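Go through the following before class.
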Amino acid sequence: RRHFLVALLALWWLLSGCSIFKPAPVPQLGEITNAGIEDYAKKILAYYDLRSSKTESAGIWGTLGVRILSLATMAMGLLGAPGPAVGLSAGTGTFLTDSLELLEIGDRANAYKFGKKKIKLAIGGYADCLEKETRKDPLTKCGSALLKKVNAAVNAVDELLTRAMPDEKDLEELKEGFK
């Protein structure tokens, strides 16, 4: 009975710290000015950085949990623990392994890394574009181009997270330089 509670507590501990079950709210665009768009791009970049690191952590801790449960199952069998306790421990390990595969942790982390890379490139292109720009309007062509690129990156990441291919239009937008 005690082994059952320990296994349940271990499973709860692993899943409660998993960022996939507690996602942060996605940043929203504020004012449509160069400053507002730049702020939005930086917030999306920070959001993807947080999601990427939490997703990778969930994968590491989940894999570690599977390993610990495997060792615990083996130790319980060797030490003569009751059959149901050994079976529960083995079943919990299998459940956790299947859950990690179902959540596709590696693919999710790669999608966020893709988004981070594209947004960093867009922010760099935006900075270069601003140096050449002579107009000082609240919203310039550089700001509009940055917004298009950030939105294309967000759309591509959303598609990758749902295991779909990103839209060609978004990928083209991400390839083009600032005009």
User: Anything to note?
Assistant: The longest helix spans residues 34-78.
